[in-house]
């Protein structure tokens, strides 16, 4: 941390009670996801970065979902949930948190739907707030399209106040500096001013920004700290959500670039928050790295690949494929056009090749499933080769059964392994066999009717055809061609 901030007497209040009508969603607005995490997660992280002694979360709409989400994040301090009841506006929401705030000297307020605000921004806000001795300080930013947000009205450098879109004159609407809903207050001033905020506006709401006007009228100092949020702010609408996600994506990719990862086309690469990627890995275009994914060093991932909740070791290659809930050992290769479903483990140097689907199976070190196969509920030893178009027949219509294949096995092409079945070490299966019984180590299992050979067949066929062409013309035309 850059400068030591005394934190004993700071309370953070995160507003998360609104419905988010403009999103037209059944889900509470603050739980909409940006790069794999709910908006509220980023806001809570920024709040926690200021090291408050109290973290209050104001809930209302979708209360149970919001509480459950926050509890699942295992925060360094126990959040206090405050039910706002009827949400009458942001000032009303902060008022509801009064008891939870307790005796803290300072109150930091953040909106659960402003996820681009980081811990650094919050610390910058607090620094200015303390240095200037202001009663209230607000974080602001510039937007090319400021529609929907409160405009920051200044006289010279002095902050006059914040005017909500619904109440703004055309001149004010043209202002591109907008207010975030991230404020630092001296607690006593905040709770003295709050009861004096009236819903005298077009939306009949109690506006938190009005606290600034009340304090100024009392002769208190208020300040505004402009920061660069990358050109987006909140997710009031689906359009806002998309704009915020774009900025977040750029930030995440920039971090990986700085850590030594190559992105051939950052614009078509989507990396979730929290994904880890080792140095000298190359991520090719149209690739998505999601959830808890960890990619090792020196890998090539993509193009057109989706990796979800998976661990990919060093030196792996994954091409045109989907990998979910899987683990790849060092030097494993996947694709093109493979689907690894949850529970797949490819050990070191193993391969899942072209048009291969693997589910809940372990493929041993150096073993290969190169072409057109389905492997489900199987365990494959090391240095085994699975011939093209092999299928583990794992489902009998009622239950799933396991296939166990030993080390150094040769499974012939187009083998059907009807589970439950075991194939011993160094065993072989003949191409096209339907294996229904265990194969002992070192044995060849062949299940195939004996091949018939009919000599001279082609000659006979041609002769028959030539004879047919000798028939009267009319008949041939009407009857069409045979065989
Ligand atoms: C608010 C600010 C606006 C600022 C913008 C930045 C007000 C009046 N306006 O507008 O100046 O530019 O944020 O994103 O504050 N909430 C509650 N209880 C309520 C109302 C809202 O908890 O009664 C929560 C919402 O869940 C949301 C946040 O407060 O997380 C902001 O509410 P929202 O309605 O989105 O305010 P904006 O119109 O975006
Ligand atoms: Ca908002």
In short:
Mean pLDDT is 95; it is low at 1-7 and 477-483. The protein is built from eleven helices and 41 strands.
Bound ligands: uridine-diphosphate-N-acetylglucosamine, calcium ion
- In total, the number of strands is 41
**Low-pLDDT segments:** 1-7, 477-483
* Rg: 33 Å
What structural class should be given to the helix and strand makeup?
A: alpha/beta
Can you give the helix content as a percent range?
A: 10-25%
**Biggest β-sheet strands, sense, barrel:** 9 strands, parallel
Q: Strand arrangement, largest sheet?
A: 14-17-20-23-26-29-32-35-38
Number of helices: 11
Any idea what the shape is?
A: elongated
Residues in β-strands, percent: 25-35%
Kindly report how far apart the N and C termini lie: 83 Å
Overall pLDDT, averaged? 95
Describe the overall structure.
The structure is a single chain. The chain is α/β, with parallel strands linked by helices. A hairpin with a 2-residue loop joins strand 2 (33-34) and strand 3 (37-38). The longest helix has 21 residues, at 238-258. The protein is elongated and about 110 Å long. Residues 111, 113, 234, 236 line the site of calcium ion. Calcium ion (CA) is lined by residues 111, 113, 234, 236.
């Amino acid at each position: 941390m850059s400068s030591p901030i005394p934190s004993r007497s700071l309370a953070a209040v995160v507003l998360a009670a609104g419905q988010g009508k403009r999103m037209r969603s059944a889900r509470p607005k603050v739980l909409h996801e940006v790069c794999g995490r709910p908006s509220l997660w980023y806001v809570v992280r920024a709040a926690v970065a200021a090291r408050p002694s109290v973290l209050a979360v104001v809930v209302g709409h979708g209360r149970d979902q919001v509480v459950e989400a926050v509890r699942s994040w295992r925060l360094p301090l126990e959040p206090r949930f405050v039910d706002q009841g009827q949400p009458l506006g942001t000032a009303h929401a902060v008022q509801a948190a009064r008891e939870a705030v307790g005796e803290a000297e300072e109150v930091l307020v953040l909106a659960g739907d402003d996820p681009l605000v980081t811990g650094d921004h919050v610390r910058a806000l607090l620094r200015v707030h303390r240095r200037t001795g202001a009663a209230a300080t607000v974080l602001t930013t510039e937007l090319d399209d400021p529609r929907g947000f409160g405009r920051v009205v200044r006289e010279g450098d002095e902050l006059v106040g914040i005017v909500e879109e619904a109440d703004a004159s055309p001149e004010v609407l043209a202002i591109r500096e907008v207010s975030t809903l991230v404020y630092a207050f001296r607690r006593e001033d905040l709770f003295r001013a709050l009861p004096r905020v009236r819903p005298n506006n077009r939306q009949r709401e109690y506006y938190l920004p009005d606290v600034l006007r009340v304090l100024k009228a009392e002769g208190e100092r208020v300040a505004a700290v402009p920061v660069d949020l990358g050109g987006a702010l909140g997710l009031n609408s689906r359009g806002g959500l998309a704009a915020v996600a774009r900025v977040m994506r750029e930030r995440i990719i920039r971090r990986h670039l700085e850590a030594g990862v190559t992105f051939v086309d950052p614009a078509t690469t989507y990396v979730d928050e929290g994904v880890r990627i080792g140095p000298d890995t190359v991520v090719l275009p149209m690739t998505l790295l999601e959830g808890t994914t960890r990619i090792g060093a020196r890998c090539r991932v993509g193009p057109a690949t989706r990796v979800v909740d998976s661990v990919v070791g060093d030196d792996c290659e994954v091409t045109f494929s989907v990998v979910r809930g899987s683990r790849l050992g060092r030097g494993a290769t996947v694709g093109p056009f493979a689907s690894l479903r949850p529970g797949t483990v490819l050990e070191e140097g193993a391969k899942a090749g072209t048009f291969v689907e693997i589910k809940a199976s372990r493929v041993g070190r150096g073993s290969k499933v190169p072409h057109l196969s389905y492997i489900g509920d199987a365990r494959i030893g090391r240095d085994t080769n699975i011939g093209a178009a092999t299928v583990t027949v794992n489902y009998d219509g009622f239950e799933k059964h396991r296939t166990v294949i030993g080390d150094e096995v040769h499974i012939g092409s187009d083998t059907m392994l009807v589970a439950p079945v075991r194939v011993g070490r160094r065993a072989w299966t003949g191409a096209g066999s339907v294996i229904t019984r265990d194969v002992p180590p070192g044995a060849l299992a062949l299940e195939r009717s004996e091949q018939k050979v009919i000599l001279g067949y082609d000659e006979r066929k041609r002769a028959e055809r030539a004879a047919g062409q000798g028939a009267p013309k009319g008949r041939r035309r009407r009857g069409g061609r045979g065989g």
